[in-house]
Design brief:
Strand content: under 5%
Largest sheet: none
Distance between the termini: 29 Å
Oligomer: single chain
Number of helices: 2
Radius of gyration: 20 Å
Low-confidence stretches: none
Shape: elongated
């Protein structure tokens, strides 16, 4: 730790709302399922669009590449 011995520090622990995370994951899974269905029936353009939107959202909201 970059603190001197005996130095006072404040630690804050924040928990994410589990319901919100579960809701976001459910929504993402539904979008992935819809895009997969579109690809399977040959509607690749819409499927690709959905995956592009998912990729952008994951990058913007969660910092994932």
């Amino acid at each position: 730790m970059p603190f001197a011995a005996g130095q006072k520090v404040e630690v804050i622990i924040l928990a994410e709302e589990r319901d919100e995370v579960d809701s976001q994951l459910k929504e993402l899974r539904q979008k992935i399922d819809r895009a997969t269905e579109q690809i399977l029936v040959g509607n690749v353009k819409d499927g690709e669009l959905v995956f592009e939107q998912l990729q952008a959202r994951l990058k913007n909201e969660y910092g994932l590449e």
